[in-house]
């Protein structure tokens, strides 16, 4: 089975590289970049297509299970996360289907990286709902969440500006004129998000074993209900940690630069999968707060204003 099926790659009879007849982007690692390692169009299209399907599914689930119940900032933010990942996946599908040519403008094939980067910024913003839960259970002020999220977004914005500037230098003057590879700035942010997500998941995993602390803050729930929710948190957190470790390994392999374009595309579905994990956490948190809120309203005999412990507002239509 051939490992390269790019029609622009020309090989000698003995299988050695002869030349590349297509358009190369300014940041290609060499004149034979598309013709080394694993570069199969079917794989290159299949993996971002999977990412696109996950993004569309995430959009539908977020609207159906979250937004229909509560019109909150975090729920809208998660919708934006899946939207950005979907746009990035769609751009990747178009790029892969055209063998990264884009009608003679191959540099456009780097657009998905920016879309994924922005999606990860919005993803970290949405992570505020899990941070709120941690600070609530630990009996710490919730304003710590805003400080952490805003600091991270400022850091990400600076890296994005520098990365785009370095990319532009490479396009205009050649990659050798750039002081460092522009992808370094993207990788720093993506790895930072992965590490932060793993740390949040580990913290929630530990808190799930301290059911008394959760019961103290959600005292309207029964011990059995808290135990059930804690079990769900453990499952989601363990899955998230394993998934992030696997994603890091894939990114490490793909960043080698000599393994082929297809290895880079193996990582594309992992980004929306990260958002799916957050969606699962938000579903559990919303269910906890809904049950606690209903019990509070029932016991008090009056209607609640719909505020929740994570600082969001319930939809007026919630029953």
Mind explaining what this structure looks like?
The protein is 66% helix and 2% strand. With 319 residues, the protein is mainly alpha-helical. Strands 1-2 form a two-stranded antiparallel ribbon. Strand 1 and strand 2 form a beta hairpin. The C terminus is likely disordered.
Determine the structural class based on helices, strands and strand pairing.
mainly alpha
Total DSSP E strands? 2
Share of β-strand residues: under 5%
Return residue spans where pLDDT drops below 50 for at least 5 consecutive residues.
Answer: 302-307, 314-319
Shape assignment: elongated
Q: How would a crystallographer describe the biggest sheet?
A: 2 strands, antiparallel
- The proportion of residues forming helix, as a percent range, comes to 55-70%
Please report the number of helical segments: 10
Q: What would you report as the Rg, rounded to the nearest angstrom?
A: 23 Å
Q: In angstroms, what separates the terminal alpha carbons?
A: 58 Å
- Order of strands, widest sheet: 1-2
- What is the ordering of alpha helices and beta strands? EEHHHHHHHHHH
Average pLDDT rating: 85
Describe how the helices and strands are arranged.
Elements (H helix, E strand, L loop, with lengths): L8 E3 L5 E4 L20 H27 L5 H25 L13 H16 L1 H10 L5 H31 L9 H26 L2 H7 L5 H32 L6 H6 L3 H31 L19
Antiparallel strand pairs: 1-2
Helix pairs in contact: 1-2, 1-10, 2-3, 2-10, 3-5, 3-6, 4-5, 4-6, 5-6, 6-8, 8-10
Salient structural properties:
10 helices; mainly alpha; 319 residues; two-stranded antiparallel sheet
